[in-house]
Write a structure and sequence with these properties.
The complex is a heterodimer of chains A (about 350) and B (about 150).
Chain A: E1 13-19, E2 22-29, H1 37-48, H2 50-56, H3 61-76, H4 82-110, H5 115-135, E3 144-145, E4 148-149, H6 157-180, H7 183-189, H8 197-202, H9 207-212, H10 219-222, H11 248-272, E5 291-299, E6 302-310, E7 316-322, H12 324-335, H13 341-350, H14 355-359
Helix pairs in contact in A: 1-2, 2-3, 3-4, 4-5, 4-11, 4-13, 5-6, 6-11
Chain B: H1 2-5, E1 10-12, E2 20-22, H2 28-37, E3 43-52, E4 55-64, E5 69-78, E6 85-86, H3 95-106, E7 110-111, E8 139-140, E9 143-144
The chains are: A alpha+beta (about 350), B alpha/beta (about 150).
Chain lengths: ~350, ~150
């Protein structure tokens, strides 16, 4: 299975050895989207690098912005205004919803059901409308900046956001009726690509993929950052509803349930949104002191870690981005032998791998 | 706890940012084995190499889900004799790809690694881009790298 053309987006390639319909080995071949983002960071400086953090994971750009901003702020000792913190959480959780909509829609599409994908994308458009209100962009937002956010939200945003949530939460049930509880769909995913707890930790799976294997671990809860401690939400874990804990269906259902939790967080954050500034002063020429920091955040694909080494100048000495998709790709080689070819598709799409995030 | 157990481990605590432990390259596997088996650091979160003007510093971030703690180990190797750091991919399977990435972008060769190939760049690429003295070639396979 391979890329069609370098100009198509999200390309990755697998070298598969098959024995009839049985997969014997799968070797992922990555790097088609390697843009050298870590090298670019050393050239363009702290402020100039901000738009590139969108491009690490363009399906969930807000959480990428957030992770980078947190890393720089923590090393430079910048305090972010409270209103900005809430706006960040609203943005990040809305982005988690839109990213999970893509994932759930794509799993359905890969299983041959096209209609749910269209429904999911229709909802995603509504989230994008909200983002357009916030910052003018619909895919690569560059909204969460060092020291705060780029713009305050316009009048009417709160109402529009709450309207969306009122409409969206019932939609999740509708979506479940449409596809999640469909017998064929469930049988295609249940017991396929089971990842045990031990394997998940050993291969450093993170985020939804880790939780689906039955480990209740969420950075927003366990090592909280921003204003997450003030917000109430649950952390869904894999239950093995129709198969085994850690199968593809668990990974799918977990994201459906996370959308519900994210909607809960957004609703609270919108209601609690305080008045005030949205950007800290004096961040235009940020120069973190010499030192290093490793900050991990919960992006839509799990741990997004920025490892930043500063030498006291206006450019990072070294910036390493550690992403969830990279480790998710590395487990494919381990799990797939013995699988049917059709199940391989289900397994890979249930891992929710985003190619630019693998390659950076 | 690492300093009590291993006399050769040095601890560094800077004023700003994270601290780390310096480990001699030859002792890395021993310390990692201790962290994993005895201390419950079951997750290797990241491996990051940094070019420090002729020396390469590799930072390993370990994490324990039970303790919610991170430990940073650092190993420094000379570029000229880079082949003296051992792989930890037998202890931590996730290290396999991370070490391949460090090899690809920084040219660190890990001794005992099962599959030491480039991972992100094409196999016929020359040089390791994250080295500070890296100069990009004018073209690659007949395609210009300039705009």
């Amino acid at each position: 299975m391979g890329p069609q053309h370098p100009a198509t987006h999200g390309v990755l390639r697998f070298i598969i050895k098959i024995d009839g319909e049985i997969v014997r080995s799968v070797v992922p071949d990555i790097g088609y989207l390697h843009r050298g983002i870590e090298k670019i960071a050393e050239k363009v400086g702290y402020i100039g690098f901000q738009p590139y953090t969108d491009r690490v994971d363009y399906v969930s750009a807000m959480t990428g912005n957030h992770a980078y901003a947190l890393a720089v702020e923590k090393l430079a000792g910048i305090t972010v205004p409270r209103r900005a913190e809430f706006l960040r959480v609203i943005a990040a959780e809305l982005n988690r919803i839109s990213s999970h909509l893509i994932m759930t829609g794509c799993v359905a599409m890969d299983m041959g059901a096209f209609t749910p994908f269209v429904h999911a994308l229709r909802e995603r458009e509504k989230v994008n409308d909200l983002f357009e209100m916030m910052c003018g962009a619909r895919l690569t937002y560059n909204y969460i900046r060092i020291g705060g956010v780029s713009y305050d939200v316009p009048d009417g945003f709160k109402e529009k956001c709450l309207d969306f949530l009122d409409h969206f939460v019932p939609f999740i049930d509708e979506f479940n009726r449409l596809i999640s509880f469909n017998k064929i769909f469930v049988e295609r995913l249940a017991n396929v690509g089971v990842i045990s707890k031990e394997e998940a930790i050993a291969y450093n799976l993170v985020g939804p993929n880790l939780r689906a294997s039955g480990i209740k671990w969420d950075l927003r809860k366990d090592i909280p950052y921003s204003v997450y401690p003030e917000l109430e939400f649950d952390v869904p874990v894999g239950t093995g509803g129709a198969g085994t804990v850690g199968d593809s269906l668990d990974r799918y259902m977990l994201r459906v349930n996370e959308m519900r939790e994210s909607a809960r967080i957004v609703r609270q954050a919108v209601k609690m949104l305080p008045e005030g500034e949205t950007k800290a002063k004096g961040v235009a020429r940020v120069r973190p002191p010499a030192g290093e920091i490793y900050v991990r955040t919960e992006s839509a694909r799990g741990d997004m870690g920025y490892y930043l080494i500063s030498d006291g100048s206006d450019k990072p000495y070294r910036l390493k981005i550690r992403t969830g998709s990279f480790s998710a790709m590395s487990i494919i080689e381990k799990i797939t032998p013995g699988m049917m070819v059709a199940d391989l598709v289900a397994f890979i799409s249930s891992l929710d791998v985003v190619a630019p995030e693998v390659d950076r | 706890m690492l300093k009590d157990k291993f006399s050769y481990v040095e601890e560094v605590r800077p004023e700003k940012g994270d601290g780390w432990f310096v480990v001699p390259p030859k002792k890395l596997a021993e310390v990692c084995g201790f962290l994993k088996e005895k201390q419950g650091f079951d997750c290797l979160s990241s491996i990051a190499g940094t070019d420090r003007n002729g020396q390469i510093e590799i930072a390993y971030h370990f994490f324990s889900y039970d303790k919610k703690e991170t430990v940073v180990l650092k190993v420094t190797i000379e570029v000229s004799t880079s082949a003296n750091v051992t792989t930890i991919s037998d202890l931590y399977p996730s290290a396999n790809w991370m070490e391949r990435e460090a090899f690809d972008l920084l040219g660190i060769s890990f001794v005992g690694h099962p599959d030491m190939r480039r991972i992100l760049l094409p196999e016929d690429w020359t040089g390791h881009p994250l080295r500070k003295d890296y100069k990009e070639g004018k073209e690659y396979c007949g395609m210009t790298t300039r705009r």
